[in-house]
Model the fold of this input.
Amino acid sequence: MPPQHKLYWVFHYLLLAAFMAFAMFPLFWLLKVSITPNDLLYSEGVRLWPSRITFEHYASVVKHTRFLLFFRNSLMVSSATAVLATLVAGAAGYGFSRFHFRGKFFIVGLMLITQMFPLVMIVAPIFRLLSPLGLTNSLSGLVIVYTAFNVPFASFLMQSFFDAIPPDLEEAALIDGANRFTALCKIIVPLTLPGLAATIGFVFTAAWSELLFALMLNSSADVSTFPVGLLAFVSKFSVDFGQMMAAGVLALVPVCGFFLFIQRYLVQGLTAGAVKG
Amino acid sequence: MASSGRRIEPYLYTLPSVLLIAAIMLVPLVIGLSYAFRDITLLDPMSGDFVGLDHFREVYADASFWNALKNTVTWTGASVVLQFSLGLVLALLLARPFKGRAPVQLLVFLPWAVPSFLSALNWAWLFNPVVGPLPYWFKAAGLMKTPDNLLSDPQHALWGPIIANVWWGIPFFAITLLAALQSIPKDIYEAAAIDGAGSIARFRRITLPLLAPTMVIAILLRTVWIANFADLIFVMTRGGPADSTQILSSYIFTVAFQRLDFGYASALAAVLLALLLLYACALVGLRQALAARN
Done:
């Protein structure tokens, strides 16, 4: 069907509407449960909108739990991880993109293998390695671990962005007497900003969601992240779905805000590189 | 000086990531693999002996392992196929400029930003007939006789986490494929249209071949991630009812942290790693063959 055809566009918008409904409905339900008063939670459980709404769940989450602390912890860990992993992966991606060197194939292979094993397998060894260094029960420990987990994928992503920028640009700067590092900072980095934003976004989201290591490496509530706090909530107040969903909605706020901020770079950035292997 | 500097330079760029990955992932991986040949049970001071291949013999005879392997194939296969095909359709829809594309794009990509444990809790809630609407919709659609919880039906429970996973993972494919689509030069399509190629022919002859490399790499990474991804299953069903949703990675988790048998868990993980490596080699080989044909 040619794109200018009216019928095509009807079909196009119908399909998109179906996708939007599928994407949004669970989030709508999360919001709905979080504002349903407790006494209506079960009696009106399957109604699309409760007959009364309340914000008491939000109030009690903020007032009576340590969610603000968990929130702050998660924000710190995720931002630090996003910045650190993007820097490290940016350097590696640049190296992969611009140089042919002995051992490159080997390094890429090692990075691919790190994507293949269940992380459960390395929980105990990592704990034993980090514990004597004082990096368990600490936010820095989590940042280091998350950075390592995210660097392989982020490096491949960054490499594809650098591949899309013609090398002539920095060659010209090199001839003018700049060294390669200056050329990288002054010329290449500004061009790859969308790519950097996309990478930061991927890493931030991944770190924000991580549960297993946050749970296993940190046992003290002072250094718990949001997912761990939410999980503790489930077992402690297993009946209080309203509060849990309210906490969940709150957990979504920063990550959605962040997503809003980077999403236009996301496709734009990936388009420049068109992830290739 | 200049030439030796140039030789060292690439290593300076890659060194931080290599050191970090080696220290945090590869060394623990080797230690973890070594557990597979030892009798390591947490909180048991008598354990630690070298047991050779005993754990692997045990794996071979373990009915739970074969059940989990079968479920892993269903879980990974169904999730990847559905995420990929729906993601491709979504990418094709978004690739064409239309009014309101930016907000639509934001909304359909939003599930990607939801932490996985939160999607799991939320979907478990949606499937619950006491508080969720889905069982009634399934009944109205004729999929169920009575509005029951999908997650407690041993026959079909695995589809609960699969649906949640598809919901969560469509944006990944849509974003990557959309990016690849937009990097295909427009003039190729125009030239083909002038030559009289219809839209289906253009899709088959231009879009698919040019997307193929991105598709293969995205599918490869996704398959491996999903096969290892136990969060949704663990939160939604804990592998139940009656092990009907137990996949290998959730089984490994159970063996390690409930039975505290790290030796056996590592042996299971080593088997999963070997299977995924085989799969990756097969897919990379396929990609090479495709590239050679074009």
Q: What stands out?
A: Residues 151 and 157 of chain B are 4 Å apart (CA to CA). The radius of gyration of chain B is 23 Å.
